[in-house]
Amino acid sequence: MPSPALGGRARCYAESVEYQRKIVIVKTGEPVASVLERRGHYATLIEQAIGSAWGGGYAHFDARTEAFPAPDGADTAAFVITGSSANVPHREPWMVRTEAWLRDVVAAGTPTFGICFGHQILAQALGGEVVRNPRGREIGRIRVERRADDPLFDGLPPSFETHATHVDTVGALPAGARSLAFTELDDHQAIRFTPTCYGVQFHPEMDHDVIADYIASRRAILQAEGFDVEALLARVSPGQLGTRTLHNFIHHVVTPRA
User: Fold this and answer.
1) Residue 7 pLDDT exceeds 50
2) How far apart are CA 220 and CA 217, in angstroms?
3) What is the number of helices (H) and of strands (E) in the chain?
4) Each residue of 229-238: pLDDT tens digit?
5) Distances in Å between the alpha carbon of 10 and those of 17, 53, 74, 81, 83?
6) Which of 11, 51, 207, 229 has a Cα at 20 to 30 A from 41?
7) Catalytic site residue from 163, 166, 188, 203
8) Annotated catalytic residue: which of 116, 138, 163, 166?
9) 116 carries an active-site annotation
10) What domains sit in the chain, N to C, each tagged with a CATH number?
């Protein structure tokens, strides 16, 4: 890890070494059809959300169908685990295999960031429990309340708005994990599992256009569950602060590893 006292030339060299590695996006599912057609895969959305916070390249692999890469990070700057319409409590074979691999990744100290399903499968892999949320579905624009200071929240206010869509939740934390934020419907919106491993239940990669598509695509289901779909859509507006957590993960966990 580079010393804070390093001069500009040394710091630039350290960053250039890190940028020879790639952020590997672990695909666990696809967005709803309308988003997939217009905006692309989760990996595309994540890369766009990270933007200039990362100057290196990306690689992708599908945890459902492809062989897992080495967990030790030799050629990997970080792993980012996507969302999915799958449910961690269903314990499908590919999920169990993914959990075993994730335990090796976390043990190796490779920076890891889970989003929604990715957040949940990390919790399950590390000894927590994921359950159907007894408070019901959370979807649309939400207000997240921080319960702890952490570099993940640098530049964010104590309460901030972002986007979410999920029906499962982390019901029990793994040993040693710390819950960093919550909403009215979910107790663990952000978790620090280890100093190099984080998860967020919300979707920092989803802009207002994407979350509106999610709401519209699930209109019938939402109405059947008693939601006012028009009210959900009316709350959607440009700008969401959750994206900052991705940037902070890159700045504070990924880049300093060189």
Assistant:
1) no
2) 8
3) 9, 11
4) 999 999 999 9
5) 11, 19, 21, 31, 37
6) 229
7) 203
8) 116
9) yes
10) 20-206+240-257 (3.40.50.880)
